[in-house]
Amino acid sequence: MSSLFEPVQAGDLQLANRIAMAPLTRNRAPNAIPTPLMATYYTQRASAGLLITEATAISPQAQGYADVPGLYGTEQLDGWKRVTSAVHAAGGKIVVQLWHVGRVSHTELQPDNAAPVAPSAIRAKTKTVLIKDGVPTFTETSMPRALELEELPGIVQDYRHAARNAIACGFDGVEIHGANGYLLDQFLKTGANQRTDDYGGSIKNRARLMLEVARAIVDEIGGGRTGIRLSPVTPANDIADENPQQLFDYLLAQLAPLGLAYVHVIEGATGGPRELPDRPFDYAALKTVYRKAGGQGAWMVNNAYDRALADAAVAAGADIVAFGRPFIANPDLVTRLEKNAPLNEPDRATFYGGGAAGYTDYPTLY
Q: Membrane-spanning residues where (predicted)?
């Protein structure tokens, strides 16, 4: 039986163990530029088999929160090079999560104070983070405008370009953020997509943009360095679909031939309950669809895992288990899990924005 602490292959990525650090937005990149402090933060956690960075904007339009990093400007790339070099020097593997927030943004965060973009002009009933006088403030999102058909190829190219930049920065690969109610998820799901063109209506049409993005990135850097994150039923950022099982079965069957390194699935509500009675979903059936369609990527599971749940998941066939919030307060989480040691409790007041406090100053066992 496989162990959580044994090596695993994920596409081209040989990982030292089956523990991944999930993406965690921390709002510590002023002007969207990664800082030396971020290099310290990720390096402290490099014992994870795979580090997945905080969500990183592929373009100025893709930004939706204050002080989150980007991957489209020279200073941003230079900042990320420092991060990847430090992580690799510590023996770690790191991929960057590519992000376009779509409608989950605010005019203050958009170029020229423009409206955020979306598949349809439907406002998300959620909040984003603005930073006022150094203080993070949760603020209602702005009303978006619907993207024109002729704008969509440009967004696909932004993803392709960001993937190329990622490899140039030294990342081991990328993760496509297709989850949590952001742009690709908005196109996918009926609750946010009311289009009547080739990107709306049928499941095939709503999945089109995500698949175009995935194919473009695979064409650019190879499937073995490309992962994707999905959240079939999370209500995060006011997202829902009327038939998620059929939708995601179709999507995974289409992703299967791309030779992805891994598929990262959030089970239940992101950061919330693993089971949603009003949104039932069969994750084992989804994995079966992917495998039957020829998908060989590692299967990564995520949401509220502890050591016992992770052991059970690996025993049941999961290849990788992603941990989120436990990594915030426990840079040596791998060691603590292996030794069944107590975990530090995270300071929620320092989750978003700030400096070293609550970021790089948590104690380790040794």
A: none
- Specify the long-range contacts of residues 310-317, CB closer than 8 Å, at least 24 apart: 310/4, 310/19, 310/337, 311/4, 314/1, 314/2, 314/3, 314/4, 314/18, 315/1, 315/2, 317/287
Residue 69's region, left for phi above 0, alpha for psi from -120 to 50, else beta, is beta
Q: What is the pLDDT of residues 244-269, one digit of tens each?
A: 999 999 999 999 999 999 999 999 99
Q: Which of 4-32 are b and which e, b meaning 16 or more Cβ less than 10 Å from the residue's Cβ? A: beeebebbebebbbbbbbbbbbbbbbeeb
Contact yes or no for 99/57 (Cβ under 8 A) = yes
Q: Catalytic residue numbers? A: 182
**Domain residue spans of the chain:** 8-350
- In 3D space, the residue among 94, 99, 68 whose CA is nearest the CA of residue 82 turns out to be 94
User: What's the pLDDT score for residue 1?
Assistant: 63
Q: pTM for the full model?
A: 0.98
Residue pointed to by tokens 């679909």: 241
